[in-house]
Design goal:
With 481 residues, the chain is of the alpha+beta class. It folds into 2 domains: 260 residues, Aminopeptidase (3-Layer(aba) Sandwich); 210 residues, Alpha-Beta Plaits (2-Layer Sandwich). Helices cover 30% and strands 30% of the residues. It contains 11 helices and 23 strands. Strands 9, 10, 12, 14, 15, 16, 17, 18 and 19 form a 9-stranded antiparallel beta sheet that branches. The structure holds zinc ion.
Length: 481
Amino acid sequence: MTKIEQLEPKEVFSYFETICGIPHGSYHEKALSDYCVQFAKEHGLQVMQDELYNVIIKKDATKGYEQEEPLIIQGHLDMVCEKKKEVEFDFETQGLRLETDGKQLFAVGTTLGGDDGIAIAYALAILASDTIRHPTLEVVFTVSEEVGMEGAAGIDLSACKGKRLLNIDSEEEGIMLSSCAGGVRTYSELPISRTKVEGDLIRLELNGLTGGHSGVEIHKWRANANVLMGRLLLSLNRKHAFLIAELRGGLKDNAIPRESYAEMIVSPDLTQRIVDQMNDLLTAYKNEYRISDPGMELGIRIEKDFKGEALDEASSRRVIGFLNSAPNGIQAMSMEIEGLVETSLNLGIMELKEGTMLFTYAIRSSKGSAKDALCDKMCMITELFEGSIRMSGNYPAWEFKKDSAFRDKMCRIYHEMYGVQPLVEAVHAGLECGLLSEKIEDLDCVSIGPNMSGIHTTEEKLDIASVKRVWEYILRLLETK
Ligand SMILES: [Zn+2]
């Protein structure tokens, strides 16, 4: 087994290992932020830490580079904390257990936080070096990127002189990411009332769906378990009367839900007919989604002579009506960049609460006006069903710059080093570049990163050879005038 200490570039992996030893999940970045401040002081560098624990470190240009434009290097301090069910692990107190096969680096039983620890490791290795040649550097580390970009939203960049920003928060080498979607979470709440009921209780569990990321995988047209459950309930309700006793599904607004659960109360003489219809519907759905969701299953269990509470008829109809009226999935494709989703939304979570039914959506668009229009539409539909809507985590799109001197330089260097042109791409997901661009006029940004797979999951892996190539590329970028 290869040891971490043997991995090249040594300085980068050594900082990466240190970072992994300091707990740094979202909202728990203080220790890592303090470490970066301490690091800067030890290296005699100017450093600023704000009350959110964002950090800015400055390093003067090396000899001969004093006249060059300053460069901002940016990454986020926090990581997504996921662990395997069977693994005992406390993200607030324990360091990650790193393992490598010489090709990939990963953490045993948990996420690795290569997203975005590798950016911090690169930056610290550059700041610590006295041999790398570079212009004035302004290194920006933000907090809480993974939970709504609160650090980037709150940071004061007035101390930065740079107009060029290298964001290291992408996961595919050879891609110069140059635009991303903006987003917002919406919470539609419908009023519900309950009533006493008696009858057969049918428990419905829709599961085995493929799921995925609501931004970068929305174009795969996978079934959304919440939406499909809504559709099933509507089809049943067109023929039979029943009341909803429970309805829930999904864990995160930005994940396409893989499972959804419902309970319905039916009159005993209808039970068999309803179950037969459910099975017919399942056959149709399985056929419809046989490419995207081959594992789809519907579990049906019946409890006879149930006595308890359920939503009354008006509330049941309201919930089913909303679920089948609100849009979901891709709303528009870009007319500028082929294959790019421009506007979408995902019903990530639905939840029956005490007096309300809550539907949480992640809305995304690379056009601010299209995002606003979709929010307005969601307000309208929610109000039509007598509900109210809230929003949070609004962040702007990073719109594509037709002319970007920084991107041109980066592409030229890439071509010189590897003999091929890199891809200039846009992504239907959020990056902090949109928020940061609002803080520095005419900011010229590009986002890159080494190859990573399975980010935000326990299968997260960092490609070691790619880390080395991207390191060499960044060094060439720094020393090229
Ligand atoms: Zn990230």
